[in-house]
Amino acid sequence: MSFTFDRSELLRWRAIEAFGRVAAAQAERDLERVRDTIRRLLWLMNDESGGLGWHAPEMIAEILVNVPALIPEYAGLLPSYLREEPFERGAHFAVYRVAQIDPGAFVEHIPALIASLNDPDPAIRAYSALALKTIAESSGGDPTDERREDNATFMWFDFDSGELRETTVEGVLKETG
What we know:
By secondary structure, the chain is mostly helical.
């Protein structure tokens, strides 16, 4: 967990990815312990905790991607952080990442994701567009056409290659299909 606070963005993303894989291995032996981890991460996102889980949404997403049995219990909490500083970017990533496994979990949050297509942060726009695109593939329609010409850059962690690279909103939308 401490590596998710590292200055190196690549190391942070790899730590987040590893966090999910470790949770999957743990879930085979003790699913309740994984639930406790998610609850602890949610607590770190609460002002009352006295701490700050800067990348807790991303870690929760990776747990849910790797332990999909927990999606019905916890995925619905992620959209509540879409406009909660400092978790906006992480929450948008989390919704996109979990939607890849269960797009139906976020159908009711389509309006909030559409509103995020106009966010000043290109990463938020990209994650919103990717989430909407993923949800649309399962329900029809694609409200992301206007992002097809968004050339703003952001750093993208590619889970397939394990690489971190600069890309554009338009580029990541084309790349993901």
